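Work Package 3 (structural annotation) set out to generate three-dimensional models for the target panel prioritized at the project kickoff. During this period the team completed the workflow that converts sequence records into discrete structure tokens, so that structures can be stored uniformly alongside our sequence database. As a representative example, we reproduce one entry of 227 residues exactly as it appears in the project archive.
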Amino acid sequence: MSVVAKSYNKSADPIVAYCSEHTTIQIPLQVELQKETLANAPFGGMLGAPEVLTFGQNFIKSLGGKRALDVGTFTGASALAWALAVPDDGEVYTFDIDHTNYKKFGVPILSKDQKTFQKIKTVEGPAVESLDKLIANGQSGTFDFAFIDADKTSYPAYYEKCVTLLRSGGVILVDNSLRGGKVADENQRNDPQNAAIHATNDIIYKDARTYSALLNLGDGTHVAFKK
């Protein structure tokens, strides 16, 4: 099996560790949140890989991005990364069905930096419905960046909504696009989550609205650039 792992996993391949060491940049607040999440949050391993977050920050900065969509809040690591990357007048909309983990583990840490914390707009409830509301409110084509890392069976719907909401030249990162290598194994695609991710990878690859590349970064990162 090819190398697929988040750098903070103890089983991470030396190549993954080496690449991460030469990619990841974290401020102390990010390090603190990562340690707190991995040590105390339920299912802490859902935390986004820091190398993927740095990768996303680089896109936001290079695009001059001001508005970001963060589908899947958990404890807030990805929302924090995007909030650090957007300018002072930027904003990050972060979506989750339940923000309990964010409030318990994320807010006490993120709120230490009020300037960054205030850029984060939490939206609680089913993310598909929340994204649809943004579209209905005339927000299509107004966002610069989107990150998808929530319930896997909804990935196709999340991708579709994010493409609609992004401007031309905007970028979408879809996390867990290899799911530990499982999507590359036809025998494991009977699992609904693996099947949904595989379907999303196919949709992105064939989508005439975007240019894309599926990367072995973190747990797999599918990058789509809106034409």
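Residues 9 and 161 are 31 Å apart (CA to CA).
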